[in-house]
Each structure stands twice: as C-alpha cells, then as structure tokens.
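Researcher: Next entry in the queue.
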Amino acid sequence: MLTCIIRYQIDPTKKDQFNEYARNWGQAIPRCGADLIGYYAPHEGSSTLAYGIYNVASLADYEAYRARLAADPLGRKNYEFAQKEKFLLREDRTWLKCASAPHGDSA
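Model: Structure for this entry, 107 residues:
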C-alpha cells in the first residue's frame, strides 16, 4: 500500500473554496478507486497549508485511478472549479510507504 500526501499552499482568503473542493473530492476519490484518508484545511498555525491524503495499492493502480478521476463528472467539475477560483497556489505530491505497521501490541 502506498500513501499519497498532497501538500497544498492555498490562498488564505479563499479557505471556503478549498473546503468545497475538499468535500467534492470526498465524494469523487473513493468512487474512483482510492482509499481517501481525508482532506485537511488550516485551523491553527499556518493559514496557507492544507493536505489531501489517500492510499492506493500501487503506482499502476494510481494511474488507473487518475484516469477514472479525470473521466468522473464531479472530478472534472472540481478541476475546473480550482482553475476558475485560483485558491490553489501550489500543489506537491509525496509518496510514502508505512514503515510502522503493524501498530499496537498483538499480545
């Protein structure tokens, strides 16, 4: 399992637009095949950093998921919304693999 962490720099005056964007992905991402952990908006501290986090089985699965997401009506609408509203100033993806599993005491 791979975890994709998307780090966004957002316009702090457009937090409501980012929240709408996040809610839309909350519907589209799971429907298109990724395991969405969640989207996180600024609350305390930085007013410009936000995150999206989801899991996929492999990079090949990620490519198939991205194709489905691009073809999804809400996915397309959300891409267009972000372009029109310009609340995303920067977007960086990092791929991680969990190194601490299994968690907890198995005894």
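Model: The CA atoms of residues 8 and 38 lie 13 Å apart.
Researcher: Noted, moving on.
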